[in-house]
Design brief:
Number of domains of chain A: 1
Oligomer: homodimer
Largest sheet of chain A: 10 strands, antiparallel
CATH superfamily of chain A: Electron Transport, Fmn-binding Protein, Chain A
CATH architecture of chain A: Roll
Number of strands of chain A: 11
Radius of gyration of chain A: 20 Å
Distance between the termini of chain A: 36 Å
Helix content of chain A: 10-25%
CATH class of chain A: Mainly Beta
């Protein structure tokens, strides 16, 4: 895999010990998230847009309205950067300088292309849906031909990517450890609350098991 | 404010009813987060990097190592896009097509510049620190002159920005409301867990109140 030997563009320059280029690490981070930030350039101006994604094999799928500027731009095969960030905690050091965050992130570079065939499009939408809420796809009305037409699906080969991870307690200057300042990690995670039913829920529709904690 | 009348670059093109350009809305979203994704271009390639930020008045501050590629690039006054995304929930519709997410996001465009003076740098670092954990700055050892030198701080005027917000239940096609499919919102939020003390914590250092729920 290309990311086992990072290119000059994906090498983690700062704090290289935090860099990780193994496919296993990169895929584990991608699989633990479902929201990415996609970066692309229009007239020299970078744009960064949040969007859902799904991974299947060595391909990352994005989707959106066929009318979306981002999707239309990316489908043209321009250079894109897709970044996935999982925030795991705030690292509280004894000095302001050594404060940090614990996180897992992946930065992917490449060029996207449009998925055109309806069957492949539907399969990709299923991948994205299952990445966000596993089990949901089987329950819902599937896309019609017209809905597929209104949906742009992009695929991006996962070829040039790197992961960056920070874990563990703060690393303070040796002389600061004696300070009477609380230090450690405040763990953070995205948590789901109780499902909120649609006011127009059909009588008898029950909260599916995949939404329960 | 410039964002009260969006430019062609910040106008929300898709689903314009979700666009909001008021300063109040934009600042409320910026103030509710502390992690952004900064996009910039090097040799035509967009990069998207997660980083902490803080807002003071009409200025957004970013910081990082003086050796960081991102910080050095941005300090050169290149075009940057800073995006803040707060994910509020997954919107589960009766049809695959109408699934969505509830979120609040801000997209900011501009050019950053380096904060050079030590006093302004320290003040900006305080802003960022307080945005991440309010109350922390007063407890910790402040940056030395050497640490300030090793830290790059950037300021970005909040001039060209837009917010995008989705709230509420799914919007299904009328004929789908009769389907016996559970629909609604799965609320999501970043939650803090119990603080984890540094193994080398000084005896007597107590968990500060600002970390308690």
């Amino acid at each position: 895999m290309a990311f086992d030997s990072p290119t000059s563009r994906t090498r983690v320059n700062r704090l290289p010990k935090r860099g990780d280029y193994s496919q296993k690490t990169i895929y584990a981070i991608l699989d633990a998230g479902f929201l990415c930030h996609a970066g692309f350039v229009v007239d020299g101006q970078p744009y960064v847009i949040p969007t859902g994604y799904g991974r299947a094999g060595d391909t990352l799928y994005l989707h959106g309205s066929a009318a979306s500027r981002m999707l239309r731009t990316l489908a043209g095969g321009v250079d894109v950067c897709v970044t996935v960030t999982l925030l795991d905690g705030i690292v509280l050091a004894r000095s302001a300088f050594h404060h940090s965050m614990n996180y897992r992130s992946v930065v992917m570079l490449g060029k996207a292309s449009a998925v055109e065939a309806d069957a492949e499009k539907a399969a990709a939408l299923r991948v994205i849906s299952e990445q966000i809420v596993r089990g949901r796809w089987d329950d819902v009305r599937k896309p019609t031909a017209q809905e597929l037409k209104a949906t742009a699906v992009l695929k991006l080969p996962i070829e040039e990517a790197s992961a960056k991870i920070r874990t563990g307690p703060p690393l303070d200057d040796e002389e600061d450890y004696a300070l009477n300042v609380w230090a450690g990690v405040l763990p953070l995670a995205i948590r789901a609350g109780e499902p909120v039913a649609d006011p127009r829920l059909a009588p008898g529709a029950k909260v599916p098991k995949y939404l329960m904690k």
